[in-house]
Structure formats: C-alpha cells, structure tokens
Amino acid sequence: QVQLVESGGGLVQPGGSLRLSCAASESISRLFVMAWYRQAPGKQRELVASISLGGVTNYLDSVKGRFTISRVNGKNTVTLQMNNLKPEDTAVYYCYTPPGSWGQGTQVTVSS
C-alpha cells in the first residue's frame, strides 16, 4: 500500500495562503486518483479536491476558485494551493489515494 506524507500546514490569517504537499512512497503516475480531504472538529471528513491521472479535477463548491490541486508525476507529489483562506477552512487536511491509503494529516488553522 502506498505511503503518503503531508506537509505545509500551519496558522494563517484570513485572506492568506498556504500550499500543502503530499509525498508518495511510490510513483504516482500509476495512481488513478489523488485527493485531499479535510476534517474539522465535530464534523465528518469531506472531499476537498481530487485529480485524475489525466488531470481532470474536482472541487468542493466552497473552495472553487480559491484552491488548486495539481500533481507532479515526476516528483511523486500532489499539492493543494489554498488562497484567500477563511476561518471555515480550518481543519486537518489529509492526502488520499484509492483504495485506502491515507496520510497522517496536516493541521490548517485560519485565524486572526
């Protein structure tokens, strides 16, 4: 099972930006879908963004126009660029690839 390690979380003020990275233990050029999920305290984990092998992306409505997912096959990395962050984006962000590989999560806190 592929191992995933996230990085790039932290504390940022509203309106700020963060870039999350997910490093995979093997080539992601064979992984059909890579995705970012998030889970806020007391809430269910939700899909934030996904990207297929062919580059087709899908976003949660509330992050459209603010977040961008991309994959760099040669570096076995998936990134999530998050701009104009809002307090409601505060959550633990997880990298995921089917059928069941999850990273350990990285905390994103948006607060003034």
Short description:
This protein has 112 residues and is mainly β. The chain is built from no helices and eleven strands. Helices cover 0% and strands 51% of the residues.
Mean pLDDT, all residues: 95
Helix content: under 10%
Q: Give the low-pLDDT segments.
A: none
Shape: globular
Q: What's the Cα radius of gyration?
A: 13 Å
Per DSSP, what share of the residues sits in E-state strands of 2 or more residues?
A: over 45%
Give the structural class: mainly beta
Query: Total strand count, please?
Result: 11
- Helices and strands, in order, run as EEEEEEEEEEE
Report the biggest beta sheet as strand number plus sense, adding barrel if it closes.
7 strands, mixed
Total of DSSP H or I helical runs spanning 4+ residues: 0
Distance between the termini: 39 Å
Structure description:
- There is one protein chain.
- By secondary structure, this protein is an all-beta fold.
- The chain is built from no helices and 11 strands.
- The protein has strands at residues 4-7, 10-12, 18-24, 33-39, 46-52, 57-59, 67-72, 77-82, 91-97, 101-102, 106-110.
- The strands form 2 sheets. Strands 2, 4, 5, 6, 9, 10 and 11 form a 7-stranded mixed sheet that branches. Strands 1-3-8-7 form a 4-stranded antiparallel sheet, with no helix packed on it.
- A hairpin with a 4-residue loop joins strand 5 and strand 6 (57-59).
- The protein is globular, with a radius of gyration of 13 Å.
- The termini are far apart.
- The mean pLDDT is 95.
